[in-house]
Amino acid sequence: MVAMNSMGTKKSKLSFFLFSSLLLILLATLFSGAQAIKGHGHGRLSSLREATVHDIQHAFKQNQLTSRKLVEFYLKEIERLNPTLKGVIEVNPDALFQADKADQERHAHAPISLSPLHGIPILLKDNIATKDKLNTTAGSYALLGSVVPRDAGVAAKLRKAGAIILGKASLSEWSNFRSNNDPNGWSGRGGQGKDPYTMGDPLGSSSGSAISVAANMVAVAVGTETDGSILAPSSINLVVGIKPTLGLTSRAGVIPISPRQDSVGPICRTVSDAVYVLDAIAGIDYNDNATIEASQYIPKGGYAQFLKADGLRGKRLGIVRDLNSLAIGNDTILSRTVEQHLDTLRHRGAVLVDNLKIANLREYYTSSSENILLLAEFKISLNAYLSELVASPIRSLADAIAFNKKNAKLEKIDEYGQNLFVEAQATNGIGKVEKIALANLTRLTKEGFHKLMIKNNLDALVTPGYLVSTLLAVGGFPGIIVPAGFDYEGTPFGICFGGLKGWEPKLIEIAYGFEQATKIRKPPKF
User: Fold this and answer.
1) What was the pLDDT predicted at 43?
2) % of residues, the chain, pLDDT over 90
3) What's the CA gap between 68 and 119, in Å, rounded?
4) 90 and 176 part of one domain
5) Distances (CA, A) of 97 to 56, 65, 72, 160
6) What residue spans carry the region label Disordered (predicted)?
7) Are residues 429 and 398 in the same domain?
8) What is the pLDDT of residues 139-155, one digit of tens each?
9) Residue 525 domain-assigned (yes or no)
10) Overall number of domains in the chain
């Protein structure tokens, strides 16, 4: 109003200019409440979207940001985006309470506030148990209202590190092991998850963790993998995923498929964020005996020390063109991009050992051995998990099958079926057929991936996309996938670096070096 009445003189024009400038600054400040947090003479966190753990911790220290404001931001983003993306299945009603507690600890300079994850919101895949007000259901109504005996091992470690459990991420129901016809990213409770870049298939089964991180509905997340369930959604949602060495992270309290292949790992926007999460969740959990043996691989001082910008220098990286062809197909854009990345690896000091062969590569992907074992292991391990619940609508795989039949419409059984459940129920422990399958997988690993790595003195195998996951899964080997670009349809893809058991330090150096050299990651545009 003042500006409207003061257009007549030079003085009033100047006043109008000053007023308008101040008004624009004020509006910009208000608008940036969800995006920019102004500092106090110590720099500025320009945006909470894409903010790394390091950015957030720096803002905490400079009094630019509180955990409460951070949680409020993510809750608003979930409210805004999740109805479309379906990346979050449930929000923790105590998230703001946890945020206030973290702010108080930081103000009091409590020792826990020195942890990199202190006050950082995190989503856990909805097959990871939390002893709180959140459900743990694997996306199924069959487990809604069940009561777990304790936090999963990784959830307990995250709480100890001061992380805020923001909620549960959606997933492919029962971690993609109910039916061959279930769509990736779909669950009865969570609906159909969508890749925020294409609004299409988000891949599975840790789809919600990848969707939520990619769309900036949370800072960091945790997923699980039996075969491809971290690497695949991370690839197509343009985020970083770490599938650790088997047993490096605890599976206790995680709704299982196979103790021989299940892993729990980070899904984040950057390699450094993923490594901070890995540092927090790796280690011994006496509720999972595999962690005792795998703890020998954890380096003194943790994994963050391997975040080296020149981590590619001197590394021997193997290229198996036959495996690359499976991922690339006839996509010339993808092929060209991959070749550019290989050149980048060379220019950054890596030694590329090209045109390698895995003699039994085709057998990895055509053999029925993995599926034979998974069916039997699923029945055994799921029944054991369900039997330990304090309360549950179901107590066995047979109960789950019956529940689905009774609630066919709710669980879309008529549309998608539950053939894997039925096939698993028909198994009878680890018998002769399963032992033959196990021996076959052991042979494939020994004569295939393991021999390739040792014979050629490799530090990692480099492959586009996630199809290497089967080689890593059946051997219990680690892999890290990093954003690498887009194919001809605009669908994101990653570059995966895989190694032998305990090779996380090498893989982190390589992955971080590649990330810093390329910096492909960018947020989706809605």
Assistant:
1) 56
2) 91
3) 9
4) yes
5) 19, 16, 11, 16
6) 178-199
7) yes
8) 999 999 999 999 999 99
9) no
10) 2
Identify which of 438, 461, 437 has the alpha carbon closest to the alpha carbon of residue 450: 461
Query: What's the Cα-to-Cα distance from 485 to each of 3, 333, 335, 338, rounded to whole Å?
Result: 49, 10, 11, 9
Q: Give backbone dihedrals phi and psi of 124, rounded to 5 degrees, phi first.
A: -110, 135
Q: What is the mean pLDDT of the chain?
A: 92
**Which of 113, 187, 229, 335 is labelled catalytic?**
229
Do 388 and 471 belong to one domain?
no
pLDDT at res. 299: 98
146 a catalytic residue: no
Per-residue pLDDT band for 46 (boundaries 50, 70, 90) equals confident
Beta pairing class for 316-319 and 186-187: unpaired
Give me the pLDDT at residue 350, please: 98
In the predicted model, is pLDDT for residue 474 greater than 80? yes
Which pair of tokens denotes residue 149? 């005996």
pLDDT of residue 44: 64
pLDDT at 42: 42
- pTM to 2 decimals? 0.92
CB 139 within 8 A of CB 189: yes
SS3 of 411-477: CCHHHHCCHHHHHHHCCCCCCHHHHHHHHHHHHHHHHHHHHHHHHCCCCEEEEECCCCHHHHHHHCC
> Could you tell me which of 203, 269, 266, 342 has the C-alpha nearest to residue 504?
266
Q: What is the DSSP string of 193-249?
A: ---TTTSS---SSSHHHHHHHHTTSSSEEEEEESSSTTHHHHHHTT-EEEEPPTTSB
DSSP strand E in 343-412: where? 351-353
Whether residues 279 and 191 fall in one domain: yes
Is 229 a known active-site residue?
Answer: yes
- Inside any domain, residue 51: no
CA dihedral sign of residues 251, 256, 258, 261: negative
451 phi and psi, to 5 degrees?
Answer: -65, -40
| Cα–Cα distance measured from residue 338 to residue 306, given in angstroms and rounded to the nearest whole number | 25
Residue that is last in its domain, among 391, 407, 433:
433
CA 164 to chain centre: 16
Alpha carbons 280 and 112: distance in angstroms, whole number: 12
Same domain, 256 and 290: yes
Domain extent, residue 386, equals: 370-433
The DSSP annotation for 233-251 comes to: HHHHTT-EEEEPPTTSB--
Given the residues 86, 113, 115, 125, the one annotated as active site: 125
Q: Residue 359 has what pLDDT? A: 87
Q: Is 250 a catalytic residue?
A: no
Q: What pLDDT does residue 9 have? A: 31
Mean pLDDT score, 466-478: 97
Q: Are residues 287 and 417 in the same domain?
A: no
| Residue 147, domain CATH | 3.90.1300.10
Task: For 80-131, give the secondary structure using H, E and C.
Answer: HHHHHHCCEEEECCCHHHHHHHHHHHHHCCCHHHHCCCCCCEEEEECCECCC
* Residue in this structure with the two tokens 């209202």, named with its chain if needed: 145
The answer on pLDDT for 38 being more than 70 is: no
> What is the spatial distance between Cα 112 and Cα 109, in angstroms, rounded to a whole number?
8
Asked whether residue 199 falls in the same domain as residue 247, the answer is yes
